[in-house]
Structure formats: C-alpha cells, structure tokens
Write a structure and sequence with these properties.
Blueprint (H helix, E strand, L loop, with lengths): L6 H37 L6 H36 L3 H42 L1
Helix pairs in contact: 1-2, 2-3
Protein name: DUF2721 domain-containing protein
Keywords: Membrane, Transmembrane, Transmembrane helix
Organism: Phycisphaera mikurensis (strain NBRC 102666 / KCTC 22515 / FYK2301M01)
Length: about 130
C-alpha cells in the first residue's frame, strides 16, 4: 500500500465542494418547483398530478442522499488527514478508502437521479408533442 500524505485527501476537497454546490443548486431548483406546484395545487387541486408529486418527492430524497454521501465523504477526508497527522497511517488509508467509496456512491445516486429527471422531462415533451 502506498503511503498516504496529508495532501492526498486534501485533493478531494475542491471536487467534493463543487459537487455539493451542484447538489445544493439542484435541491434549490426542486424547492422552487415544489412551491410552484403548491401554488397551483391551492388554485386547482386537479391540475397537479399525483405522478408529478411522487416523481418530485423521489428526486428530492435522492438529492438529499447525494448530499449526505458527499458530506460524509468530505468528513472522512478530514478524518483521514487528522489520522495521518497523528501517525495512524493505516487507519487513515482505510478512512480515505471509505471516503472514496462514499464519493462514488454519491455520484452513482446522482446518475440515477438524472435518469429519473430525464424520464420525467421526456413525459412532458411527449405530452406536448401529442397536442
């Protein structure tokens, strides 16, 4: 196993931070969409389809899970750096490995969420094409 230096986990900081920013922007977009749907629902409950609500709820929870996995990855990068600093190299390497796995899981959930979003948009486009 290669020696882990303090700079190795630090390399992920910028990548994870940018991912978390993108996830937060996505979450804010969903929050605005929920508020818009809520206003439409208040005016005409029949206009808001249950499928839209279910799809949006699912995407919101996936986005939350992406954020949780990203934050956990960042936390383990910090823990890994601390462990390297105090001389616990083996534990630091395992913590960094888990951080990488959590980051990969976050990206996997993001890919799944994007797939669901595309399907949702395809339904809207197909509906518009019929009309």
């Amino acid at each position: 196993m290669q020696d882990l230096s303090l700079s190795t986990p630090a390399l992920l900081f910028s990548a994870i931070s940018l991912l978390l920013l993108a996830y937060t922007n996505r979450f804010m977009g969903y929050a605005n969409l929920v508020r818009t749907l809520y206003e439409r629902f208040q005016q005409d409950p029949a206009s808001v389809l249950e499928a839209q609500i279910a799809n949006l709820r699912r995407r919101i929870y996936l986005t939350r899970n992406m954020q949780v996995l990203g934050v956990a990855s960042l936390f383990l990068c910090v823990a890994s750096m601390l462990l390297v600093y105090v001389g616990q190299d083996l534990v630091a390497a395992y913590a960094f490995g888990v951080a990488l796995l959590l980051l990969a899981a976050s990206l996997g959930v993001s890919l799944y969420e994007i797939t669901i979003s595309v399907r949702s948009l395809e339904l809207h486009l197909a509906d518009m094409q019929k009309r």
